[in-house]
TrEMBL record:
Organism name: bioreactor metagenome
Boundaries of every PKD domain copy: 190-256
InterPro entries: ConA-like_dom_sf, Ig-like_fold, Pilin_N_archaeal, PKD/Chitinase_dom, PKD_dom, PKD_dom_sf
Name of this chain's protein: PKD domain-containing protein
Pfam families tied to this protein: Laminin_G_3, Pilin_N, PKD
Length: 413
């Protein structure tokens, strides 16, 4: 009897147990339902078959089956870094049958490539592959250049112009080499030589105008003015080391640009300010150029140059008819373009970086050639302050002259 009473006091009523089981069942059912609802609000990530390979430093992703990865909803990670832009995949759907490539180069380490789906704010790895490329040293791809046809104008742009300062970086930094073609045959030729010389080295040259070469030395010709990038790619077939180098070449039209920063000190007119001449006081028909100043009603700041039609040398003028106020600095630039087909194309003058609307000429310079005198020297008129002068053996464009003026106007050099 006693044992029966004790058993009831320590046990659980069948009714209460049933209620507890029911409550637990309801609770678990609610948690499960909540989980199903939360999962049902987001579509599953795409499933795609993508192969990843590396061949001589070129990483290739090939989509061969499954879902399309929409543009902007996936990333390509290389060694953990986002390289989607390098694969040019930022605005491209990655769909079955398509490939994405990036030439990373064999000199760089490669350990992991991943394709990650990022749609809906998620980050789901769709494809991934490990690599064990440690990278190789970079081969020396430096090279030198020699102008074999044409006039080398590099030193007159980058290191010094007629004994004065080099042109400002806004111009000088546009190219590594400046060259002007010979009048006949109207082209320039450059010889490029790689520093590295080895039987194990493979060379690949591009000229910037469609020419190629595969030897240590390459010779390229240019017959059209413009800017060209010469590129050299080298690879050592034994070590696998590779490298690349480049050089910018500026081929310019034949002609001349004469520039000076000048200031008039008194009320004087009709005097040469600065000139390249064999004459002691003025230009002579032996050759040369001058920037001079005359009565603005007729001349103003003008550019005067000696040209010849192969028979008789003559003076040719480009007159701005602009005033030069005493005590004020002016930037004057005279330009001769030997390729010009009209008077306006052949001879120009710019004042403070601007081509004057009132420019006039005395004779037609078209078809005439600049008479260069080997004995000509730069001379300055003491009645003017001449801060600097420049003589460049090719015509600068109006935009380039304006750039020079704007770079120097606060402190005329």
């Amino acid at each position: 009897m006693t044992e029966e009473v004790e058993g009831r006091e320590n046990g659980v009523s069948p009714v209460i147990a049933a209620l507890l089981i029911l409550a637990l069942t309801v609770l678990l059912t609610g948690v499960f339902a909540l989980g199903m609802l939360s999962l049902g609000g987001q579509e599953p990530a795409p499933i795609a078959g993508i192969t990843i390979s590396d061949t001589n430093g070129v990483i290739t992703l090939s989509h061969f089956s499954g879902d399309t990865l929409p543009a902007g909803e996936y990333k390509i990670l290389v060694n953990g870094a986002d390289r989607t832009a390098d694969f040019q995949a930022g605005d491209v759907d990655f769909s079955p049958g398509s490939r994405l490539t990036w030439d990373q180069g064999v000199t760089h380490q490669l350990s992991l490539v991943s394709v990650v789906f990022t749609g809906g704010g998620r980050s789901v790895v769709i494809a991934e592959k490990k690599f064990y490329r440690e990278g190789k040293g970079e081969a020396n791809a430096a090279f030198s250049a020699v102008i074999t046809e044409g006039k080398n104008a590099t030193s007159q742009v980058k290191t010094g112009v007629s004994g004065t300062n080099p042109l400002p970086s806004v111009i000088a930094d546009q190219a590594d080499i400046w060259v002007v073609p010979d009048p006949v045959p109207g082209q320039t030729a450059l010889e490029f030589t790689a520093e590295e010389s080895s039987a194990d080295m493979v060379y690949s040259w591009t000229s910037g105008n469609g020419q190629t070469a595969d030897t240590r030395t390459a010779v390229f010709t240019y017959d059209t003015a413009g800017s060209y990038t010469v590129r050299l790619d080298v690879r050592n077939t034994v070590s696998g080391e590779a490298g690349s180098g480049s050089m910018r070449v500026s081929v310019r039209e034949p002609g001349l640009t004469a520039m000076a920063w000048v200031k008039r000190n008194s009320d004087i007119y009709n005097l040469i300010v600065v000139r390249s001449s064999t004459g002691a006081a003025s230009l002579s028909t032996a050759g040369g150029w001058a920037i001079q100043y005359g009565n603005p009603a007729h001349f103003g700041i003008e550019f005067k140059i000696v040209l010849t039609d192969s028979v008789t040398p003559s003076f040719n003028h480009a007159r701005s008819r602009l005033e030069m106020a005493a005590g004020t600095w002016y930037h004057a630039a005279g330009v001769l373009n030997q390729s010009g087909t009209t008077t306006a194309e052949t001879l120009k003058i710019y004042v403070n970086g601007v081509y004057p609307a009132s420019i006039v000429y005395d004779t037609n310079p078209t078809g005439k050639k600049y008479l260069v005198s080997e004995s000509a020297v730069i001379r300055q008129n003491p009645a003017f302050n001449v801060s600097s002068y420049s003589e460049v053996p090719f015509p600068l464009s109006g935009a380039e002259i304006a750039s020079i003026y704007n770079a120097e106007k606060l402190d005329p050099r």
